[in-house]
Write a structure and sequence with these properties.
Strand order of the largest sheet: 1-2-4-3-5-6-7-8
Shape: globular
Oligomer: single chain
Distance between the termini: 48 Å
Strand content: 5-15%
Number of domains: 2
Largest sheet: 8 strands, mixed
Radius of gyration: 26 Å
Helix content: 40-55%
C-alpha cells in the first residue's frame, strides 16, 4: 500500500470514528434526536438552529426547554457542551445561530440578535412545557437572551448569563424582578470583565456596582449564595469557575453551574448530578475528525498525482543554496516579529478601511485580510532585498524559487493545472465534511476552532475574500520554500522550520498575553480581549498553512499549488465561521 492510500485510510478512519463517537455522545446513544432546522424571524428573515429532542418530550408529555445561544463570531455548535448536557437531563434544547452567524440570515446584531424570534419558536412547539422554559447565553449570547426576555417577559422562567452581563440596551432600571431568576456564571480569568461588569479582573466581579445593582445590594456578592426568592422569580446567584472567557465552552464547572441552576428553577428535568458530563467525548470526536480531514486532504493530493491529468505537475527542484546564517536568521525574525507587532494595529486599520459592505461584509474577516496583506507586503520586501543583495549572485533564479520550469518558462496551463490540483485536494476534505454533517450532524471542530460547511451566502462571500488571501499565501509560499529553503535530506526539517516561521511568533504572543491573565488576572493588553481571543485561532491555522505550503511544494516543486490550497482552505475556514455584518 503506497503512502497516499495509507494517508487516505487514516484520514477516513479518523473522520468516521470521530464522527461516530460525536454522534452517539450528542444523541445520548439514541435517547436524544437532533434536528437541523430553519424558521422565520422578523420580516421573513431565516433563523438557523439545532433542536435537541429527548425521548421523554412528546405532545402528550411536554418537557421543560432551554434556549441556548453562542457568543459573537461563534455558531450554534459552540454551545454543544451545554446543549448535550441539558438534553441528557430531559430538556428540549434549541441551539440557535444568532442573526448574521452560521446559517441565520445577516446582518449580525439585527432583531435582538435573533433572541425574541427563537424564544417564540421554542414556545410554539407542542413538545415544550410552556411554564418551564429557561435560557442560557454565552457572551453576546447573554444579550440575545436578554433581548428575548425584554420582548417576552412572561415567556421564560429563568436564565443563565454565561460570561455575560446585563445592561443597555436591555436594562430595566428599578425593576427588581427582571430578568427572572438570573444566574451569572462569570469566570475568574474572563478577558471581558471590564466590558461586562466594569471591573479590571474577573475576581473583582463580586464588588462590581453593576452586578450589585442586579442583585439588589450594595455589598460584596457572595459566590453561590442565592439572593431573593426563586418562587417570586427574582432570585440571583453568582458562580465563578476558574477559567477564561472562551474556556467556558469546555469547562465542566461552567457547564455544571448552569445545570444546577436550571435544576433549581425549572421543573421536569432528570435528576442527573451536574458532575456527570459526557460532552467532552463529543469534543474529542470532532477533534479526531478535524485532524482526519487534514490527513485526508494530503492523502487525496497524492492520489491525484497518480492520475494522468496531474502526473506532469511534478518536476525536479533546484538544489538549495540557502545557508543557515545571519541573513537567514534576521529575515525569519523580522517576518515573525512583524506578524505579531502589526496584529492589533492592522486589525484597527482594517476596521476603519473596510466598513461592512456588499464587497467585504464580514468585519473580522476584513481585519484578518488587512493583517495578511500588510504582512504579505513586508515579506515581499524581505524577499526582494535578500534576493538582490545576497541570493541573485549565488545563482538563485525564478526556477529556484519555484516560479518556472527548468527552462525558466512559466506555462499558464501549468498554473491552471496546479490550481485544479489544489482545488480537488481541498474539495476532498470539503466532501468529507458534508458527509459528516449529513450522517453525523457534526462539523469538524475543537473548542472555538471550527471547520464548517458553507451556505450559498458564505460561498459568495468566500469568492470575494479569496484573492486577497491568495496574495498573502502566494508570497508566503515562495518565501518559505524558496528564499528560506535550507539544504537537508531530512524530510521533516522543512515542515518544522516553516511551522516555526509562520506560527511560532503567535505562540510567543499568546504566552505573553495569557501568562499575566493566569498569574495576575489581566491580559497584558487588557483593552483588546476580542482580538486576543481571535489570535488563538491563528496558531493552529498557521500551522496547517505551513504544512500545506511545504507539502504541495514538495510534490510539485512550484509555489502555486500550496498558495492555492491555503487560500481555498483558510478562506473557507474563516468565512464560514465569521459573523456577517452586512445584509446580502
Amino acid at each position: 500500500m503506497n503512502k497516499g492510500k495509507i494517508l487516505l485510510l487514516i484520514g477516513f478512519l479518523l473522520i468516521f470514528v470521530g464522527g461516530l463517537l460525536a454522534y452517539f455522545v450528542q444523541t445520548d446513544f439514541g435517547n436524544v434526536r437532533i434536528r437541523d432546522l430553519r424558521f422565520n424571524g422578523p420580516n421573513g428573515s431565516v433563523m438557523s438552529a439545532l433542536l435537541y429532542i429527548p425521548k421523554n418530550a412528546t405532545s402528550k408529555t411536554p418537557a421543560p426547554a432551554i434556549l441556548v445561544v453562542h457568543g459573537y463570531i461563534n455558531s450554534r455548535e459552540t454551545q454543544d457542551g451545554f446543549a448535550i448536557e441539558y438534553a441528557r437531563r430531559g430538556y428540549v434544547v434549541l441551539a440557535i445561530d444568532q442573526t448574521g452567524h452560521g446559517y441565520s440570515d445577516p446582518p449580525a446584531f439585527a432583531n435582538g440578535f435573533g433572541g425574541p424570534a427563537a424564544l417564540m419558536y421554542l414556545r410554539s412547539l407542542d413538545i415544550v412545557d410552556k411554564n418551564n422554559i429557561g435560557m442560557e447565553g454565552h457572551s453576546m449570547g447573554g444579550w440575545t437572551i436578554l433581548a428575548a426576555a425584554a420582548v417576552f417577559p412572561d415567556f421564560y422562567k429563568s436564565i443563565v448569563l454565561e460570561g455575560s452581563s446585563t445592561g443597555a440596551p436591555f436594562a430595566k432600571e428599578g425593576d427588581t424582578t427582571w430578568p427572572r431568576n438570573c444566574a451569572v456564571v462569570f469566570s475568574t480569568m474572563d478577558e471581558f470583565s471590564l466590558l461586562m461588569w466594569g471591573v479590571k479582573k474577573g475576581t473583582d466581579v463580586p464588588n462590581s456596582p453593576k452586578l450589585q445593582a442586579l442583585f439588589g445590594t450594595s455589598e460584596k456578592i457572595i459566590e453561590g449564595k442565592i439572593y431573593q426568592d426563586i418562587n417570586l422569580g427574582n432570585a440571583r446567584v453568582l458562580y465563578q469557575p476558574k477559567t477564561t472567557h472562551p474556556q467556558d465552552h469546555i469547562s465542566k464547572k461552567a457547564i455544571g453551574y448552569s445545570i444546577d441552576w436550571f435544576a433549581k428553577t425549572l421543573q421536569g428535568g432528570k435528576d442527573i448530578p451536574s458532575s456527570n458530563q459526557t460532552w467532552i467525548f463529543k469534543e474529542l470526536g470532532t477533534l479526531l475528525a478535524l485532524i482526519g480531514c487534514i490527513i485526508f486532504i494530503l492523502g487525496f493530493s497524492l492520489f491525484l498525482l497518480s492520475l494522468s491529468p496531474f502526473k506532469n505537475n511534478q518536476q525536479e527542484a533546484a538544489e538549495s543554496k540557502v545557508k543557515f546564517n545571519i541573513v537567514y536568521i534576521i529575515s525569519a525574525l523580522i517576518s515573525m516579529a512583524v506578524a505579531v507587532l502589526s496584529y492589533y494595529w492592522t486589525f484597527k486599520l482594517g476596521a476603519k478601511i473596510f466598513k461592512a459592505s456588499w464587497l467585504f461584509p464580514q468585519t473580522i474577516t476584513s481585519q484578518i485580510m488587512t493583517w495578511a496583506l500588510f504582512n504579505g507586503l513586508v515579506n515581499l520586501v524581505i524577499f526582494l532585498l535578500t534576493h538582490f543583495i545576497f541570493n541573485k549572485k549565488n545563482g538563485m533564479d525564478c526556477y529556484y524559487y519555484g516560479f518556472t520550469n527548468q527552462e525558466g518558462k512559466i506555462h499558464f496551463l501549468t498554473i491552471i493545472n496546479d490550481f485544479l490540483f489544489a482545488f480537488f485536494s481541498i474539495a476532498s476534505g470539503y466532501l468529507m465534511l458534508i458527509l459528516a454533517d449529513y450522517f453525523f450532524k457534526i462539523d469538524f471542530r475543537f473548542w472555538i476552532i471550527a471547520l464548517k460547511p458553507m451556505s450559498i451566502t458564505h460561498f459568495g462571500i468566500f469568492l470575494r475574500y479569496l484573492i486577497p488571501f491568495f496574495i498573502f499565501f502566494f508570497i508566503s509560499s515562495f518565501t518559505l520554500n524558496g528564499s528560506m529553503r535550507l539544504p537537508t535530506k531530512k524530510h521533516w526539517v522543512p515542515y518544522i522550520l516553516n511551522m516555526i516561521i509562520m506560527a511560532g511568533a503567535f505562540l510567543i504572543f499568546l504566552l505573553v498575553e495569557y501568562i499575566p491573565l493566569f498569574t495576575k488576572g489581566m491580559l497584558l493588553t487588557a483593552t483588546e480581549p476580542l482580538n486576543t481571543i481571535v489570535a488563538i485561532q491563528f496558531l493552529p491555522l498557521l500551522i496547517i498553512a505551513s504544512i500545506f505550503s511545504t507539502w504541495f511544494f514538495n510534490r510539485t516543486k512550484r509555489v502555486y499549488a500550496g498558495a492555492f490550497a491555503n487560500a481555498l482552505f483558510i478562506t473557507w475556514y474563516i468565512v464560514a465561521s465569521q459573523a456577517t455584518q452586512f445584509a446580502i
